[in-house]
Every structure is written in structure tokens, then in C-alpha cells.
Specification:
About 35% of the residues lie in helices and about 20% in strands. The chain is an alpha+beta fold. Strand 4 and strand 5 form a beta hairpin.
């Protein structure tokens, strides 16, 4: 009985792992904000004067919404900068922090420099990188020396929501994003 339950659980896990990427690709882009859709709707007006009046009114409304910060505008460069600054946090459900339009993940690794580092507890280091993110060592790897400000660092994903950091020529350590 126990083997059957284990076999079912493994089978279900395999199906979920196999189907998850396919479901993620079928995600549709969220609809545009109402203010943008109203501008798009003006194109359907066949009368030139009516279409122009619609565009003028909707653009004025959109400009007002931007001024009140009800709508924020950012381009791909700003989205990439935000993805980079939030690397290490799970934000895939937000449309502008998940996958790019071409299906590739936005940021695969961070290459930066150590801003500050300090040892906390036995074999644990907390450090900040130039972009302001604070990371903490999540394993018990003993480093031959403490990281120093200015040391080059590369942080990249590991398995199951974990991350690895390579600090200069020191050993690779497992890390987690703290803030």
C-alpha cells in the first residue's frame, strides 16, 4: 500500500514538472490599462473629426492619470533595471518581472562588486553588492578569508529557488537574498 502511494506521488510530481513549462508559455499578456484601451478604441471611429476628438480627449485623460500617478510608464530598459535590482526574489507572477516577450528569463545572473561584508555567526557572511541588494550565506562553507569591499562577485540561481555566489577566487557559497 505504501509503495502504491509513493508511486502515485512520484507520478503526479512528474506530470506537474512536465506540464508546468507548457502552461507557463500559454500565459497571455495582461490587458492594457483602461486608459490605454480607451485610446486604442478611438481607432474604430471612422469619422476623421470624431476620431481626432476622441484621441485628444483620451490622451488628455491619460496624461492626467500619469500626472496623478494612477498609471506609470516604463520601457524595457527600466523593466530590466527593476528585474536586476530584484534578482533573488520570486516575482514571476507580476507581468513585468517574469519572462521577457521572447520567452527567455530576464536576468540569469548578477555580476557586481561587494560594497560591504561582515561575518555573522559561525561560518556565515552577510554582504551587500553595489546595486544595494543584501545577501546572506545559507550554507556552512568555510571561506579562507572574509570578502572585502571591491571584490568581484557573481550570483546565479541554483536548484529549487537557491542561489550560488562566487566571490573573487574564494570558494563558491550558497546564498539567499535578504533585502
Amino acid at each position: 500500500m505504501r509503495r502504491e502511494s509513493l508511486a502515485r506521488a512520484i507520478g503526479l510530481f512528474a506530470v506537474v514538472v512536465w506540464v508546468s513549462p507548457a502552461l507557463a508559455k500559454d500565459r497571455k499578456a495582461p490587458p492594457p490599462p483602461a486608459q490605454v484601451q480607451q485610446i486604442f478604441d478611438c481607432r474604430a471611429i471612422s469619422d476623421d473629426a470624431g476620431r481626432l476628438a476622441c484621441f485628444d480627449a483620451q490622451v488628455a485623460s491619460f496624461e492626467d492619470a500619469v500626472g496623478k500617478q494612477d498609471v506609470r510608464i516604463f520601457d524595457r530598459a527600466a523593466a530590466d533595471k527593476a528585474r536586476r535590482s530584484l534578482f533573488g526574489f520570486t516575482l514571476r507572477d507580476l507581468p513585468f518581472f517574469g519572462d521577457d516577450d521572447d520567452g527567455k528569463e530576464g536576468v540569469q545572473r548578477i555580476e557586481s562588486t561587494i560594497k560591504w561584508a561582515r561575518r555573522e555567526g559561525y561560518n556565515q557572511v552577510r554582504f551587500a553588492i553595489e546595486e544595494g541588494a543584501v545577501w546572506v550565506q545559507a550554507d556552512q562553507t568555510d571561506l579562507p578569508r572574509d570578502p572585502r569591499p571591491g571584490d568581484r562577485i557573481v550570483i546565479y540561481p541554483g536548484a529549487i529557488s537557491s542561489y550560488w555566489a562566487e566571490i573573487g577566487s574564494l570558494k563558491r557559497i550558497r546564498v539567499r537574498r535578504e533585502r
